[in-house]
Amino acid sequence: MRKYFGTDGIRRIANTELTPELVYKVAKAGAYVLSKHTDHTPTILIGRDTRISGTLIESAMVAGFLSYGANVKLLGVIPTPAVAYLTRKLNADASVVISASHNTYEFNGIKYFSNKGMKIPDTLEEEIEEVMDSGKLDELMAVNDKIGISEYALDLIDEYVYFFRKHFDDVIEKNSKDDFIVGIDTANGATSFIAEKVFKTLGIKYKIINNHPDGININQNCGSTHLEGLKKFVLDNQLSLGVAYDGDGDRCLAIDEKGNEIDGDKLLAIISSNLKEKRKLKKDTIVATVMSNLGLNKYTRDNGLELLQTKVGDRYVLEEMLKEGFNLGGEQSGHIILLDYNPTGDGILTSLMLIKAILETNKKASELGDMIKLYPQVLINAKVDSDKKYDYDKDTSIREAIEKLEKEFAGNGRVLIRASGTEPLVRVMIEGEDQEYITKKAQEIVDLLEEKLK
Fold first, then answer.
1. Residue 147 has pLDDT above 70, yes or no
2. Residue of 26, 51, 408 whose CA lies nearest to 247
3. Which candidate in 42, 231, 237, 251 could, as Cys together with 35 as Cys, close a disulfide (CB 3.0–4.6 Å)?
4. What is the dotted CATH code of the domain comprising 10-152?
């Protein structure tokens, strides 16, 4: 069990749990682990979102990197996928994003990327933790002319804007419509400034909300985790589409012109259909997680596609894609990975792929969303003893209750139980055709879990 890293880097309350002292150690150990095989002075990029604690964490990270002897380029406020893209573009040795993604402002986090612009695997995170706790940090001390230097490189964000222009300028111009207007919700986060720049550069008409970050309003009743405001904005302004990003810009969810949500599963269906038509969907396969809706499974089966499912986490989706040579994968939450473009979830890229599909097919967003029928889902957390949360599959009565329900569904529903990686919780997710029935059954299993795993 890892001590500091969770399912998506390190994420804690800034300055009390994620202290400058801890960040300094994470930076120094990370610089060592990620660059120990290089024969040159390593260069590390740092990007952050708009949280008030961002510059505090950034300062501690810079100190750790420079103390080790690494050079640093500070990218400022920038989306996570832009950092991943620039890491490869500049041949940097590693990069870090300071963000707590969709969490509220008091949290912050650290995500490491390798020189290939990919989130580092569990094994490297474990190695960083070992170095942090081994007493070796004191030895990793640069002296004299070996101390690293840092520089601001805020203009590099223009390289990311050019990336979108290069890939989408022609197709948007060819298929543009005067009455096609997109609503954009940037969650007062890392896409607050660049999203508008990208849409303006591509000539896409838009109206934008939640793009005035103040350090504490990131994800506050806005963005991909709070779609109510965007839905109202789309309907009130009679927009063609609404797109919402999360705090660090690696997720995208959408609202169609009727106010219906287009979640990650629907996005995967729409984008896969567009790619398949152009014979660009590698091996006619989508990679998703076990949390994906049963409807995505049926959609792929009915349309001659394959669906591979991994454990929860976009890093595991990416690992499967790389291993087998697939180019489309993602999560229900809106992490969509388009490997032909970028090796991480990219909210702006995902929204442009959706817009491209709408314009090329000359269909409304709602028509494309209707190509997949999603089953009702319910997710309830059982509060259990932290030491017992992984024992749910060892209890006979719990196992029998799950097996009985799965038999009842007979293929038209499913039960998924998994322990939280960070909290004393067991998550119960049930899918089926009747919302009221699956909610009742989920609560019954939660009650049983809480009784047996106290």
1. yes
2. 51
3. 42
4. 3.40.120.10
All CATH 3.40.120.10 domain ranges in the chain, comma separated:
10-152, 159-369
Stretch 258-283: mean pLDDT = 97
How would residue 428 be classed by pLDDT, with cut points 50, 70 and 90? very high
| Confidence tier at 422 by pLDDT (50, 70, 90) | low
d(CA 31, CA 128): 9
Distances (CA, A) of 391 to 7, 216, 371, 450: 20, 39, 39, 12
For the chain, give every residue range classified as CATH 3.30.310.50: 377-452
User: What's the pTM value of the predicted model, to 2 decimals?
Assistant: 0.91
Which tokens in the block code for residue 274? 């567009």
Is position 101 annotated as part of the catalytic site? Answer: yes
pLDDT tens readout for residues 27-63? 999 999 998 888 899 999 999 999 999 999 999 999 9
CA dist., res. 123 & res. 129, Å (int): 10
Give 383 or 412, the one with higher predicted confidence.
383
Architecture in CATH for domain 159-369: 3-Layer(aba) Sandwich (3.40)
Among 340, 450, 329, 427, residue whose Cα is nearest residue 380: 427
- Residue 386 binned pLDDT confidence (cut-offs 50, 70, 90): confident
Measured distance CA(237)–CA(217) in Å, rounded: 24
- Cα 333 to Cα 105, 128, 169: the distances in Å are 19, 28, 27
* Single-letter code of the amino acid located at 60: A
3-state SS class at 93: coil
Measured between alpha carbons, how far is 81 from 161 in angstroms, rounded to an integer?
Answer: 12
Q: What type of residue is 324?
A: E
Reading the block at residue 251, the tokens are: 């997720």
Could you say which of 67, 99, 101, 114 is catalytic?
Answer: 101
Answer yes or no: CATH 3.90.1150.10 is held by domain 377-452.
Answer: no
**pLDDT tens by residue, 339-356:** 999 999 999 999 999 999
Cα separation, 188 vs 251, in Å, equals 14
Closest CA to 280 of 360, 214, 374: 360
Written as one letter, the residue type at 306 is: E
Contact 168, 202 (CB under 8 A): yes
Q: pLDDT (tens digit, 9 = 90+) per residue, 77-115?
A: 999 999 999 999 999 999 999 999 989 999 999 999 999
Q: Which amino acid is at 92?
A: A
What number of CA atoms fall less than 13 Å from residue 7's CA on the CB side? 12
The DSSP symbol for 387 reads G
DSSP per-residue codes, 360-372: HHT--HHHHHTTS
| Calpha distance 339→65 (Å, rounded) | 30
